[in-house]
Design a protein that fits this description.
heterotrimer, A alpha/beta (756), B mainly alpha (412), C alpha+beta (273), B: 412 residues, mainly alpha, two-stranded antiparallel ribbon, 2 strands, C: 273 residues, 10 strands, binds ligand MGD, binds iron/sulfur cluster, binds molybdenum atom
C-alpha cells in the first residue's frame, strides 16, 4: 500500500517534471499562441495588384470624380479624382464610405414581390421576367382603361440620360407626372427663370469670389456638392471673406470670417435691408442696374399703370426696422452691406435650409444683381440644360396624348403654380383630399426615398396607402422600397454606367461618367434597362420611343461625340460653353434682368406680391403652446435624404449627437435652464406634425429659443447600423407651401419640449 | 470526532457543518468561476473597462492583494532573517495568506489580459525596460517560492506525514526554509517595487508619475515600504477574524502586539516618506507638467480632495500613531481600529494609483472618465475571496497551522 | 549638407494639422477606417469603446451665444519621440512584450498585433488616448469583407491597435524607390490615407527634418503647437491655429505661462538635438 502510493506520487511528480523537460508542452503552448494569431474567423483579405478606376459618385447630387482602388475585382477604397473639374480630389465622407453601400446589408439582391402586407417586410424572390411583366401588365391595364395619367414617377433628378429616358418613357406612355424630388434647386430655377428668363440652374463661381455671403447654406456641412465646396474652401486664401447667416453655429458658420445669427426665417428681410443700404448709399453697379436691368425704378406698364420698383420696395427696409425683424444690429447690417458691395467679386448664395421660398430667393438674388456680378467671374451664371440629350421626335398614340394633356397630379404647372416644375410635396394633400379613386393609381419610384424625406410622414404614408401599385427601383431597402409592392433593384453606382451632367451650382458645362468599377454583385438590373424592357413589353409607340437594345447602347449613342473623352478621362468639359455677356444674357419679356419679375404668378396683381417683399415668417404652430422653434440641421457626418448613413459615417458621430438609440436636440443653455433641462435629459419634443423622444444637448452656439435636430436619422429601413437611431426630422415638420409657387416655404416649426 | 486527517489535539467542527459552510462559500466561488469563463470565452467586453480605463478593478485588486500578501514576505523576513522567534507562531498563517493573495493575483492577471493564451509572451519576448516584465518575472518566481514555503505546512497533515518520502521532504524543506524566505524577501522587494513603478514611470500621466532614483520612481520604494508596513496588519486582521469565527485563541496577544508595533513604525516612516513625496509631486513634478494639485481633485463626482485626506491622514497617520503607541496596541479595540484603517489606507492608495490615474483628464478639452465595473468583474474579484476562505477552511481544519493553538485552548 | 547625406539621413515623419482650416468633416476618420480595416459595431456611441485611429474632437471657446466659437481637433497617434527624442515614447518603453516599437529610421511607433497579448499597459501610458483595444471580435456584415485592404492585417479580439501613420504606405513607397534605385522617397510618394482624404487640405505630412518638405516649414511656424507639450512626449503631430483660445484648449499650461514661452522652450530643446 505504502509503496504503491509512493510510487504513484513519484510517478506523478516525476512525470510532470519530465513532461516539462520534453518539447511537448512548449510546442503546444506555441501552437495555441499561433492559433490566436490566425483565428479562422478573422478575415484575411486576398492580396493582388491594385488597379485604380475612375468614376463619378452619385450618392448625392454633388457629382464628384472618384478614383476607386480595386484588388482582384473588389472595390477597396474610394479616393478623390485629383483633376476632376468639380471636386478636384476632395470627397465628402459619404463618398469615401461607398464601398460599404456596395457590399452592405441594405442591398436588395434580386427582384422581389411583396408577400405579406405592405411594409411588413415579407418578400418573395422573383425573376426579372416576372418583375418586368408585372409592371408592364399594370401599366398596360391602366392604359387600356384610358388612365395613363394616373401613373406617376418620382426621380431624384431631371437631368442626365436616365432621367431623360424615364421622361421619354412617360411621354410615350401618356403620363404628365414625372416628378423630381424637392431641393433648393426648385426655388433657384424659378428665380432664374423669372429674373433672367432662362431655364437652367444657378451656378455660383465660389472658387473665384472674394466675398461669399451665404444665407444659411450649409456650404461646409454637406449642402449641394460637398466635395466641390470643400475643394473651393481649400483654395480660399486670406483675402476671401465668408459670411454665414444662420441662427446656429454650424461647421460653415464656425469657419466663416463672420457669423450673423439672424432669426430663423428672416433671411429675406436681411437681404432687403442690405439692399436698402446699398441703394441708399449708391453702392450698386450703376452700369448694370441702369442699362441691363428692369424694374429697379418705379415703372409704368403698357396700360399706363404705375408699378413700384425694387428701389422703392427696399426703402421700406431701413436698417432699424430690419434689425428688429432679424435681431441683427442696424450698424452691423450697414457694415455688412458696405463690405459686400465693396468687395471686388462678391456673391450672395441662397438655398440653405430647404427649398427656400421664392420671395427669399429673389431677394437674395437681387443682391447679386445690385453688385452686377451676374455672368462675371466670382459671381453667378445661368447654366442651361445640357444639349447633348436631344433625340428624334417620337410618335405617340391618342391615349398617350390625351393622358399628357391632363393636369399633373402634383399641380405643378397648373394655374395655381404655373411656373413651378415639380411639387412632390403637394401629392399627399391631393391624394388624401380626393374622393373616390386615388388620382395616382401606379407609382414608379425611380429615385429618392419619399416616404422618408417628405414632410409630415403620416400624411405621406396615408397617401401612399391609397396608391394601388408601387414599384421601387431602389438599390437599397429604403423606407419607400419597404412600402412598395414590387422591387426592381438598380445596380449600385459602382456597378453601373451613367452620365452625370453638371452638378447644380457649378458654373460650367460638364459631363462626368459613372461606370462599373466592379462586376455586378447581385441579380440587379440597370434602371435604364428596366425601363427599356418595360417599354418593349408594352410595345407599339412606346417600344418605338425607346428603340435601344439596352441602356449602355443608348448611352454610347447619346454621348457618341464625347464618349472617347469620357472613357479616357472620365469627364468632358464643354469647350464651347461661354457665359454670355449682359446684352445677350437675358431672355425675359424686357430682355433685361428683372428686379420686378413680370412673369411671376401673381393672382392678386399687387406689386407687393410680385416684388420679393418680406412676409412674416410662416412658422407653423401656436406660439402659446409651442414656445420653441425647431429647425433641422445638416451634418456632414450624417447622410440626409435618400441615402442611409453607412456604418463608417455613423461611427464618426459624436456621443452628444446620438447616444445608443437616442438623438440629441440642441438647446442653448439659457433655453434649457428656462425649461429646466440639463445635459443628457430625456424629453418629449412635440410639433404640429408629430412627437418624438429625444435627449437634450446644451450648445452655446445655438440661438436661445431654438431647438435643432440633425437630418438623416430616424430611419426605419436600410440596415441595423442606422435604422432605429434617433428621429426622422421630416416627420416632425408640417408642410408649409408658399402662395403662388407652391414651394415648401419653411422647414422650421413651432415645438414644445416637455419632460419624458 | 477526531479523524486521522485532522491534526492531533485540536478540535474541529463536525463534517456536516464544515460541508455546509464549504457549500455556501463554494456557491460564491462557482459564481465567480462562471464569470471567469464568460470573460475568457467572450472576451474583455464582459467588463466595464474601456479605452480610457485600460486598467481598472482587477488591476486594483491585483495591486491590493499583493500589498496585503506582503505579510508573508515581511513576516518571513522578521522571523528568519531578523530572528524574531515570537513570530514563529503566526508565520505559517502568514505564508498561507500570502499564498492565497499571490495565487489570486496571478489568476486575476490571467483574466485581465486580452489574449490569455499568449500570456507567456511576456517572458518570451520580454522587454527588460518594462516594469510589467519585472513584475511578471518576480511575481511568478516569488509565487513558486511561496508554494515551496507552503508545501511543508501541507505535508504536516497527519495523513501525508505518515508517508516517509513526504515526511522527509517536509523535514528537509524546514531546514532550508530560511533560504527560501530570504529569496522571497529579495524577490518581494523587487516586485512590490516594480508594481509601484508600473504607475510611477508613466511620464505621460502626471497624476501617477514620480521622479526617483536611477531607474526607479519613488513609488517603487513607497510600494515596497507600504506593503511591508500593511502586510502584517492584514495578517493580524485575518488571524483575528479566524479567531472570531472559530471561537478559539490561535495566536498569543504578544505576537499580535509585536507585529502591530513593527507595522506601526513601518507605517509611520512610510507616511513621512509618502507625505514628502506627495508634497514634492504637488509642488514640483505636476506643475512642471502643467497641472496644479487641484486639477486632480476637482470637477468630478468622485475624486475630491477627501480621498487624499482619507489616504494620508485618516488611514495613514492615524493608524500609524495608534500602532506605535503602547496604549494603542494594548487596547484591543484601538489595535483593531489601527489595523483596519491601515489596511483600508493601502487599498485606497492602490485604488488611486490605478483608477484615479485613469480617471483624471489630461487634454484640457477632455473630461473626467468614470467607470463602473460589471457583475462579471465583481464576481471574478470576489472569486479569490471565496477561494481564500475555502483554502483557509481547509488549512485550518487539516493542517497544523497554529503551533500555539493547543496550548492556548487547553482550558476549554 | 551634401545631397547624399540628406538622402540617407534618418527621417522623422510628422503631420501638421491646420485647425483654422479643418471643418470637422470627418473624411479623415472614414478614410482611415477604410484604409486600415478598422471595424465597426451597431452602436458606436460610446466613444471609449469605439475603434478610431484618428478622432476629430469638437471644442468650443465656452463663451455664450453669439460669441461662441468652435474648433475641431483631429487627433491621430502623436508618434511621440519621447522625453529625450530618442524613441522613449510613453507607450513603447512600457510594453512588456515588445509588441509596440519605435522605428528609428522613420520615427514611427509600430504596433505588432500578433505579439500583443492585451495587457493594455501601453494604453495606460499614452496620454493622448491614441491606443484602442479590440474589446470585441471584429466582424463585417453582409459581404463587406470584400472591401478589406490586403495591405493591412485585420486585428483580432484582445489586442491593442492604433494609428500607424499608414506604415504600409511607407513600405510600398520605400520598395518602389528601392526598385528604381533611389534612396530618397519623394514627399508625395508617402502620404497617409487621412491626409490624402482631407478635402480641405488641412493636413500636411512629410519628413520634419527635410527642409524641402512642407511640414518642415509649417511645424516651425509661429502658429504651431503640440498637444500637452509639457509632458515632454515630443509628438510628431503639430497643430496650427491663429486663435489663442484654441491653443489653450489643446495644451495645458499654468496661469502666468504663455503659450509663446512654451514654444520657445521647445524650440531650444528641439535645436539641441
Ligand atoms: N421641404 C424640404 N424637405 C426636405 C428637404 C428640403 O430641403 N426641403 N431636404 C431634406 C433633405 S436634407 C433631403 S436630402 C431630402 C431630399 O431627398 P431625395 O430627393 O429623396 O434624395 P436625393 O438627395 O435626391 O438622393 C440622391 C438620390 O440618388 C439615388 N441614388 C444614388 N445612388 C444610387 C444607387 O446606387 N442606386 C439607386 N437606385 N439610387 C441611387 C438615391 O436613390 C436618391 O434618389 O429631402 C428632405 N426633405
Ligand atoms: N454628406 C452629405 N452631403 C449632402 C447630402 C447628404 O445626404 N450627405 N445631401 C445633399 C442634399 S440632398 C441636400 S438637400 C443638401 C442640404 O443642404 P442645405 O439645404 O444647405 O442644408 P440644411 O441643413 O437643410 O440647411 C442649412 C443650415 O440652415 C440653418 N438654418 C436653420 N434654420 C434656418 C433659417 O431659418 N434660416 C437660415 N438662413 N438658416 C437656417 C441650419 O443651421 C442648417 O445648418 O446637402 C447635400 N449634401
Ligand atoms: S459630395 Fe456627393 S458626390 Fe461628392 S463624394 Fe460626397 S456623396 Fe459623393
Ligand atoms: S500618442 Fe500615445 S500611442 Fe502614440 S506614440 Fe504617443 S504615447 Fe504612444
Ligand atoms: S497591450 Fe499589447 S502593446 Fe500594449 S503593452 Fe500590452 S502587450 Fe504591449
Ligand atoms: S496616418 Fe494612417 S493610420 Fe494614422 S490616422 Fe491617418 S489614416 Fe489612420
Ligand atoms: S478631413 Fe480634414 S477637414 Fe475633415 S475633419 Fe479631418 S482634418 Fe478636418
Ligand atoms: Mo439632405
Amino acid at each position: 500500500m505504502k509503496i504503491d502510493r509512493r510510487c504513484f506520487l513519484s510517478l506523478v511528480i516525476g512525470g510532470a517534471v519530465g513532461t516539462t523537460l520534453t518539447p511537448v508542452p512548449w510546442k503546444l503552448t506555441d501552437d495555441i499562441a499561433i492559433w490566436t494569431q490566425n483565428w479562422p474567423w478573422t478575415p484575411e483579405p486576398e492580396e493582388g495588384p491594385s488597379v485604380y478606376k475612375k468614376s463619378v459618385c452619385t450618392l448625392c447630387n454633388g457629382g464628384c470624380g472618384i478614383n476607386v482602388r480595386t484588388v482582384r475585382g473588389k472595390a477597396k477604397k474610394i479616393e478623390g479624382q485629383a483633376d476632376y473639374p468639380v471636386n478636384r480630389g476632395s470627397l465628402c465622407p459619404m463618398g469615401i464610405s461607398a464601398t460599404q453601400d456596395l457590399y452592405g446589408p441594405a442591398r436588395i439582391k434580386s427582384p422581389m414581390k411583396r408577400a405579406g402586407k405592405r411594409g411588413e417586410g415579407k418578400w418573395e424572390k422573383i425573376s426579372w421576367e416576372e418583375a418586368i411583366s408585372t409592371v408592364s401588365k399594370k401599366l398596360a391595364e391602366l392604359r387600356s382603361r384610358e388612365k395613363p395619367h394616373t401613373v406617376a414617377c418620382i426621380s431624384e433628378s431631371d437631368r442626365g440620360t436616365v432621367a431623360y429616358l424615364i421622361d421619354r418613357f412617360l411621354k410615350a406612355y401618356g403620363s404628365p407626372n414625372f416628378i423630381r424630388t424637392p431641393s433648393f434647386q426648385d426655388s433657384q430655377e424659378l428665380a432664374l427663370y423669372l429674373t433672367q428668363g432662362q431655364q437652367g440652374t444657378i451656378g455660383y463661381d465660389l472658387e473665384n469670389s472674394d466675398y461669399i455671403l451665404s444665407f444659411g447654406c450649409a456650404l461646409l456641412d454637406g449642402r449641394g456638392n460637398a466635395g466641390r465646396m470643400f475643394s473651393a474652401y481649400a483654395g480660399f486664401d486670406k483675402k476671401v471673406k465668408l459670411v454665414q447667416i444662420e441662427p446656429r453655429l454650424s461647421d460653415t458658420a464656425s469657419r466663416a470670417n463672420t457669423w450673423i445669427p439672424a432669426r430663423c426665417g428672416t433671411e429675406g428681410a436681411l437681404a432687403l435691408g442690405l439692399a436698402h443700404v446699398i441703394v441708399r448709399e449708391k453702392l450698386y453697379n450703376k452700369d448694370f442696374v441702369e442699362n441691363f436691368s428692369f424694374g429697379f425704378q418705379d415703372w409704368t406698364d403698357e396700360a399706363g399703370k404705375l408699378h413700384k420698383g425694387f428701389s422703392s420696395l427696399v426703402k421700406e427696409y431701413p436698417p432699424e426696422k430690419v434689425a428688429e425683424i432679424t435681431g441683427i444690429a442696424g450698424s452691423k447690417i450697414e457694415s455688412l452691406a458696405r463690405g459686400f458691395a465693396g468687395a471686388r467679386r462678391p456673391v450672395a448664395v441662397s438655398g440653405g435650409f430647404g427649398q427656400g421660398s421664392l420671395d427669399e430667393t429673389l431677394a437674395i438674388n437681387a443682391l447679386n444683381a445690385l453688385v452686377g456680378n451676374i455672368n462675371r467671374p466670382g459671381g453667378i451664371a445661368a447654366v442651361s440644360e445640357p444639349d447633348y440629350l436631344s433625340w428624334s421626335e417620337m410618335k405617340i398614340d391618342k391615349t398617350a396624348s390625351n393622358g399628357r394633356k391632363k393636369p399633373r397630379a402634383d399641380e405643378a404647372g397648373s394655374s395655381r403654380f404655373p411656373n413651378t416644375g415639380h411639387l412632390l410635396y403637394r401629392l399627399p394633400e391631393v391624394i388624401n383630399s380626393s374622393s373616390g379613386d386615388s388620382p395616382i393609381q401606379a407609382l414608379l419610384v425611380a429615385g429618392g426615398d419619399p416616404l422618408y424625406t417628405m414632410p409630415d410622414s403620416d400624411a405621406a404614408r396615408k397617401a401612399f396607402d391609397k396608391i394601388g401599385f408601387i414599384a421601387s427601383f431602389s438599390t437599397y431597402m429604403d423606407e419607400t422600397a419597404r412600402h412598395a409592392d414590387i422591387l426592381l433593384p438598380n445596380h449600385q453606382f459602382l456597378e453601373r454606367y451613367e452620365d452625370v451632367p453638371t452638378p447644380a451650382g457649378v458654373p460650367k458645362r460638364i459631363i462626368g461618367l459613372t461606370r462599373p468599377v466592379v462586376r455586378q454583385q447581385y441579380d440587379t438590373l440597370h434602371i435604364g434597362d428596366a425601363f427599356i424592357r418595360i417599354a418593349h413589353n408594352l410595345g407599339g409607340f412606346i417600344e418605338n420611343a425607346l428603340p435601344w437594345k439596352n441602356y449602355e447602347e443608348f448611352l454610347k449613342k447619346t454621348l457618341s461625340n464625347q464618349w472617347k473623352t469620357l472613357e479616357k478621362q472620365g469627364y468632358w468639359v464643354d469647350p464651347e460653353f461661354v457665359i454670355p455677356s449682359w446684352d445677350e444674357a437675358f431672355h425675359t419679356p424686357s430682355g433685361k434682368y428683372e428686379f420686378y419679375p413680370t412673369e411671376r404668378n401673381n393672382p392678386s396683381g399687387k406689386d407687393a406680391d410680385a416684388l420679393p417683399g418680406f412676409k412674416t415668417s410662416g412658422i407653423p404652430g401656436d406660439p402659446e403652446q409651442m414656445p420653441l422653434i425647431l429647425i433641422p440641421y445638416e451634418s456632414i457626418r450624417i447622410a440626409g435624404g435618400a441615402v442611409g448613413n453607412p456604418p463608417f459615417m455613423t461611427k464618426t458621430v459624436d456621443a452628444n449627437v446620438i447616444k445608443d438609440e437616442d438623438v440629441f436636440v440642441e438647446l442653448n443653455p439659457k433655453t434649457a435652464k428656462e425649461y429646466g433641462f440639463s445635459e443628457g435629459d430625456t424629453a418629449i419634443l412635440k410639433t404640429p406634425a408629430g412627437r418624438a423622444k429625444v435627449r437634450v444637448h446644451l450648445f452655446e452656439g445655438i440661438m436661445p429659443g431654438l431647438a435643432a435636430l440633425p437630418e438623416g436619422l430616424g430611419r426605419k429601413a436600410f440596415s441595423d447600423y442606422i435604422a432605429g437611431k434617433g428621429v426622422n426630422i421630416n416627420s416632425l415638420l408640417p408642410e408649409v407651401a408658399e402662395r403662388g409657387s407652391g414651394l415648401n416655404r419653411c422647414r422650421a416649426t413651432r415645438a414644445s419640449l416637455t419632460r419624458a | 470526532m477526531t479523524t486521522p486527517a485532522i491534526p492531533e489535539g485540536v478540535k474541529r467542527c463536525s463534517t456536516g457543518k464544515f460541508a455546509l459552510w464549504l457549500a455556501v462559500v463554494g456557491a460564491v466561488l462557482l459564481w465567480g468561476v462562471y464569470a471567469m469563463f464568460l470573460v475568457w470565452y467572450k472576451g474583455l467586453n464582459q467588463t466595464g473597462m474601456n479605452d480610457a480605463y485600460g486598467f481598472a478593478l482587477w488591476i486594483w485588486a491585483d495591486l491590493t492583494v499583493i500589498a496585503l500578501g506582503g505579510g508573508a514576505f515581511f513576516s518571513g523576513f522578521l522571523t528568519y532573517i531578523i530572528g524574531k522567534k515570537e513570530l514563529k507562531s503566526i508565520i505559517n498563517y502568514a505564508v498561507i495568506i500570502g499564498f492565497i493573495c499571490y495565487s489570486s493575483a496571478l489568476l486575476i492577471l490571467a483574466l485581465d489580459i486580452g489574449q490569455p493564451l499568449r500570456g507567456w509572451f511576456i517572458f518570451w519576448h520580454a522587454n527588460v525596460h518594462s516594469m510589467l516584465t519585472e513584475v511578471a518575472f518576480c511575481l511568478s518566481v516569488y509565487f513558486a517560492v511561496l508554494t515551496i514555503e507552503f508545501l511543508p505546512i501541507v505535508l504536516e497533515n497527519p495523513k501525508l506525514d505518515r508517508i516517509p518520502f513526504l515526511h522527509h521532504l517536509s523535514h528537509n524543506l524546514h531546514e532550508v526554509m530560511a533560504v527560501f524566505a530570504a529569496t522571497g524577501v529579495f524577490l518581494s522587494f523587487f516586485h512590490q517595487g516594480s508594481l509601484g513603478g508600473v504607475a510611477g514611470v508613466l511620464y505621460g500621466r502626471p497624476f501617477a508619475f514620480r521622479e526617483g532614483l536611477l531607474i526607479w520612481p519613488w513609488t517603487f520604494f513607497l510600494f515596497t515600504w507600504s506593503a511591508a508596513a500593511v502586510g502584517p496588519c492584514f495578517t493580524v486582521l485575518i488571524t483575528r477574524i479566524t479567531e472570531k469565527v472559530t471561537g478559539k485563541k490561535l495566536v498569543k496577544q504578544a505576537t499580535f502586539r509585536l507585529l502591530a508595533k513593527i507595522s506601526g513604525w513601518m507605517l509611520l516612516t512610510y507616511m513621512i516618506a509618502k507625505i514628502i513625496d506627495t508634497w514634492y509631486w504637488a509642488a514640483v513634478t505636476a506643475p512642471a507638467k502643467g497641472f496644479t494639485l487641484m486639477d486632480f481633485y476637482t470637477n468630478n463626482p468622485v475624486y475630491g480632495i477627501w480621498i487624499l485626506i482619507a489616504e494620508l491622514v485618516i488611514c495613514g497617520l492615524l493608524p500609524a500613531v495608534i500602532l506605535v503607541t503602547r496604549k494603542g496596541r494594548e487596547n484591543n479595540l484601538l489595535l483593531m481600529t489601527g489595523v483596519i484603517l491601515a489596511v483600508i489606507g493601502v487599498c485606497i492608495n492602490r485604488w488611486v494609483m490605478v483608477l484615479q490615474v485613469m480617471a483624471a483628464p489630461l487634454l484640457p478639452f477632455q473630461d473626467w472618465y468614470m467607470y463602473m465595473p460589471t457583475w462579471q468583474e465583481i464576481a471574478t474579484t470576489i472569486l479569490p475571496i471565496a477561494y481564500g476562505i475555502i483554502l483557509i477552511m481547509l488549512a485550518y481544519r487539516y493542517l497544523p497551522v497554529f503551533p500555539q493553538e493547543k496550548e492556548l485552548n487547553s482550558g476549554s | 549638407m551634401t545631397k547624399q547625406e540628406q538622402h540617407t539621413r534618418t527621417k522623422r515623419y510628422g503631420m501638421v494639422i491646420d485647425l483654422d482650416r479643418c471643418t470637422g468633416c470627418g473624411a479623415c476618420m472614414v478614410a482611415c477606417y477604410a484604409e486600415n480595416n478598422v471595424p465597426f459595431k451597431k452602436n458606436e456611441s460610446d466613444k471609449m469603446l469605439s475603434l478610431n485611429w484618428i478622432r476629430v474632437f469638437k471644442v468650443d471657446n465656452g463663451k455664450p451665444f453669439p460669441d461662441t466659437e468652435i474648433c475641431y481637433i483631429p487627433k491621430p497617434c502623436m508618434q511621440c519621440d519621447g522625453r529625450h527624442m530618442e524613441g522613449h515614447s510613453p507607450c513603447v518603453s512600457v510594453c512588456p512584450a515588445v509588441a509596440t516599437d519605435y522605428d528609428y529610421p522613420t520615427g514611427i511607433v509600430s504596433q505588432i498585433y500578433t505579439r500583443c497579448f492585451g495587457c493594455r499597459y501601453c494604453m495606460a501610458a499614452c496620454p493622448y488616448h491614441a491606443r484602442k483595444f479590440n474589446w470585441w471580435d471584429p466582424s463585417w456584415p453582409a459581404e463587406m469583407e470584400k472591401y478589406l485592404n490586403p495591405d493591412v492585417s485585420v486585428r483580432m479580439r484582445g489586442v491593442v491597435e492604433k494609428c500607424s501613420f499608414c506604415y504600409h504606405r511607407y513600405q510600398k513607397a520605400r520598395d518602389k524607390a528601392y526598385l528604381e534605385g533611389r534612396d530618397e522617397i519623394y514627399e508625395h510618394e508617402y502620404q497617409p490615407a487621412c491626409v490624402e482624404a482631407c478635402p480641405t487640405g488641412a493636413m500636411t505630412f512629410g519628413d520634419l527634418l527635410n527642409p524641402e518638405h512642407e511640414v518642415y516649414k509649417l511645424s516651425r511656424s509661429k502658429k504651431a503647437f503640440r498637444l500637452l507639450e509639457k509632458l515632454h512626449t515630443n509628438p510628431k503631430v503639430y497643430y496650427l491655429s491663429s486663435k489663442s483660445w484654441v491653443r489653450r484648449k489643446a495644451d495645458n499650461y499654468l496661469e502666468g505661462q504663455s503659450p509663446g514661452q512654451q514654444n520657445n522652450a521647445r524650440k531650444t530643446e528641439t535645436a539641441s538635438h
